[in-house]
Amino acid sequence: MTEKMYNQCVNLYADNVYRFIWKNLRHEEDAKDIVQSAFEKLWINRAQVAEGKEKSYLFTIAYHQMIDHIRKNKRVDLHETFGDEVLGNTKQPNAIGHQNLMRALDQLNELQKSLVMLKDYEGYSYQEIGEITGLNESQVKVYLHRARITLRNYLVSPENVL
């Protein structure tokens, strides 16, 4: 990988990687640190990264670093610590719906949450998600299906309906 190709990767994928990490952590500075670290690892290992696999490599590295970060800071509940600052204290009509969706996502474990974000928010294929998470395609489908059932059950329960 040349310096030019690396810079193209930064331009093409930095926002997507950041958005994915931020949606999972909901902490801006930690997300920025993980993205920066992922790009640093890409640069260090640029000779081993196959051409055309840069995106998958970045998301894989960022995903694993995010999981490590979550495990390391498991005792800290960022949602309670940062509250409205992270979710945005908006007065829009759908702010309640957004908050319900965030609470529903909090019902999922880290893997399920990551799968939902990669598939439904970022639009990756099952195969790409498998490469990023280290799961096979069947596992991705099963875990994603279970996550969606959990989300549906949470969102349609009477206490969570708008």
Automatic annotation (TrEMBL):
> What Gene3D superfamilies does the annotation carry?
1.10.1740.10, Winged helix-like DNA-binding domain superfamily/Winged helix DNA-binding domain (1.10.10.10)
Molecular function in Gene Ontology: DNA binding; sigma factor activity
* GO BP: DNA-templated transcription initiation
The RNA polymerase sigma-70 region domain sits at 10-75
Q: Does the keyword Endoplasmic reticulum apply?
A: no
- Domain RNA polymerase sigma factor 70 region 4 type, by residue range, is 99-150
- From which domain of life does this come? Bacteria
Keywords attached to this Swiss-Prot or TrEMBL record, sorted alphabetically, are:
DNA-binding, Sigma factor, Transcription, Transcription regulation
Indicate whether Transcription regulation appears among the record's keywords: yes
- Return the InterPro entries for the record: RNA_pol_sigma-70-like, RNA_pol_sigma-70_dom, RNA_pol_sigma70_r2, RNA_pol_sigma70_r4_t2, RNA_pol_sigma_r2, RNA_pol_sigma_r3/r4-like, WH-like_DNA-bd_sf
The record, for PANTHER family, names: RNA POLYMERASE ECF-TYPE SIGMA FACTO, RNA POLYMERASE SIGMA FACTOR HI_1459-RELATED
User: Which NCBIfam families does the protein's record reference?
Assistant: sigma70-ECF (TIGR02937)
Q: Tell me what this protein is called.
A: RNA polymerase sigma-70 factor (ECF subfamily)
